[in-house]
Amino acid sequence: MDYVIEVPKQVSLPVQGSAQHFPVARIFCVGRNYAEHAREMGHDPNREPPFFFMKPATAIVAGDGEFPYPSLSQDVHHELELVVALGKGGRQIAEADALSHVYGYAVGLDMTRRDLQGEAKKMGRPWDTGKAFDFSAPCSAIVPASSIGHPSKGAVVLEVNGEIRQRGDLQDLIWNIPETIAYLSTLFCLMPGDLIYSGTPAGVGPVKPGDVMKGSVEGVGHLLTKVV
């Protein structure tokens, strides 16, 4: 097929232990999916239906790398998360079948222009400028579920310059991974290549140029990102 402009390069993530790559379709993020994080953001952590926001695939920073501090913000926060990579899509996916749609897992950062997000909330506007900006989704290599299974518990830890900022556990997710996939599939027809950032534990906070963030999810891997 002939196009009037050059076709954009496919965004992808490396697959651990393989020369192949995982093509990224869409990025869905679950909001306030740990009770303590919901509290620190001033919200009731009761188990209400989950809500989602999106980032473009082009926000991916693949593997250990650099996060350029974004413009028009003075308050950029880290949010460490388990990332779920879908190998199969579908609508109305049953919770019992949800994990069969997962190709693998990764460690990701949902970087947030907190000041711009706060302004949008006050004005009743979408969060895009606070969440969906360039380079806002650093992500480690995908680890196939065939190698590690489907983690349902394990420490989620972020250090900034060697100091622990965030610490949680996957078993504390308000909506676990099968529930999240099943619910999301009632809102969208999920596709192979979709990523789901599953939510962040308490302890989110600001970073500045020169900071080094080291995130880990037990049983999945690590991510090292420098703010530049």
Short description:
The chain is built from 5 helices and 18 strands. With 228 residues, the protein is of the alpha+beta class.
Structure, explained:
This protein is an alpha+beta fold and 228 residues long. It has helices at residues 35-40, 114-122, 128-131, 145-148, 177-187; strands at residues 12-14, 21-23, 27-30, 52-55, 60-62, 65-67, 76-78, 80-86, 102-109, 112-113, 137-139, 143-144, 155-160, 163-169, 195-197, 205-206, 212-217, 221-227. Helices cover 15% and strands 33% of the residues. It contains 5 helices and 18 strands.
User: In DSSP terms, counting alpha (H) and pi (I) runs of 4 or more, how many helices?
Assistant: 5
Q: Average pLDDT value?
A: 95
Indicate the structural class: alpha+beta
Largest sheet: 6 strands, mixed
Q: Spans with pLDDT under 50 lasting ≥5 residues?
A: none
Q: What is the H/E order?
A: EEEHEEEEEEEHHEEHEEHEEEE
- How many strand segments? 18
**Order of strands across the main sheet:** 4-3-15-8-9-12
Distance between the termini: 39 Å
Basic shape: globular
